[in-house]
Amino acid sequence: MSIGARIIGWGVLIFGLLYFFVPLGGLFEFSLKARRGVYSLDAYSRVWADPQFQATFGYSVMMALATIVIGIVIVVPTAFWVRLKMPWARPYVEFMTLLPLVIPAIVIVFGYIRLYNTSSFLPLTGSVLGTNVLLAFGYTVLALPYMYRAVDTGLRTIDVATLTEAAQILGAGWFTILSRIILPNVVPAVLSGAFLTFAIVIGEFTLAALLDRPAFGPYLQRIGANKAYEPFALSVIAFGITWGCLALIQLVSRFSKAAPTRF
C-alpha cells in the first residue's frame, strides 16, 4: 500500500472517530454541569437514586431476558431445519426476517392492539401478564433480523449434516440433537444475537409506550421532557450499555475462533 493511500485511510479513520466521539464528549461534559461552577456526578447520582429508573431499567432487563429466550427457542430450530432439510426455503426465511427492518414498529404495535384488544378472541391487552407477553413477542420480532443472522452465521461454521447424522446413528432424538449438539456449537453466535437483542430492548420506545408498559425507553423520554442534566446522564449510560454489549460480542467472537466442535 502506498504512503498516500495510508494517509488517506488514517485521515478517514480519524475523521470518523472525531465525528463520533466529539459530540459524545460534549454530551458527557454537559452531564457533569449539574452543580453550578464545578464538574460533578450529581446528575448520575440523581438518576441512580431515582426509584423509577431502577424500576424501569429492571423491567426492561427482565423483558430483554425473556425476549432472548423466546428468540433462541424460535430461531435456533428454524435456522437448523432450514439449513439441514429445507435449503430451498432460505431466501423466503431471510425475507421474512428482514421485514421488521422495513415495517415501522408503530405499525406492528397498532396491529397488535387491534388484533389482541379486550374485545378480540385473544384479549392479551386486558391483563398485565398478557400485555407483557405481547410486548416480549413484539421485541422478539424487532430483534429477529439480528438473532437469525447471528445463528445462521454460526451454523455455517459447523458441519450440521454430519453432526446430525452421527447423532441419529447413536440414537439421539431431535431434541437431544438441538440441545446437546447443535446449540453448544453455536453458543458464541447465539450470545452475539442475545447481546444485540438486549441493546435493542433496553432502548426501545414505541412498543412499550403504546402498550403502556413501565420500560426504560419511555422513562428516557419522560426524563428528557422534564429534566435538564439527567437526560444527558441517561444517554451516556445507554451508550455505555450498548458499547458493553458490542464489546462482549467481540470478546465472544474471538474466543469462538479457537473453540473446537463439540460432539
Mean pLDDT: 84
H/E element sequence:
HHHHHHHHHHHH
Number of strands: 0
**CA-atom Rg in angstroms:** 22 Å
**Oligomerization status of the protein chains:** single chain
Principal-axes shape call: globular
Question: Termini distance?
Answer: 44 Å
Percent of residues in helices comes to over 70%
User: Largest sheet at a glance?
Assistant: none
Category by helix and strand content: mainly alpha
Low-confidence stretches: none
Strand content is under 5%
Total helical elements: 12
Give a verbal description of the structure.
The two termini are 44 Å apart. Helix 3 crosses helix 6 (128-156). The chain is globular, with a radius of gyration of 22 Å. It has helices at 3-31, 42-49, 51-84, 90-102, 105-115, 128-156, 160-169, 174-185, 187-203, 206-210, 216-226, 230-257. The mean pLDDT is 84. The protein is mostly helical and 263 residues long.
Which labels suit this protein?
single chain; 263 residues; mainly alpha; 12 helices; 79% helix
Q: Any chance you could write out the topology, listing elements then pairs?
A:
Elements: H1 3-31, H2 42-49, H3 51-84, H4 90-102, H5 105-115, H6 128-156, H7 160-169, H8 174-185, H9 187-203, H10 206-210, H11 216-226, H12 230-257
Helix pairs in contact: 1-12, 2-12, 3-6, 3-9, 4-6, 6-9, 7-8, 9-12, 11-12
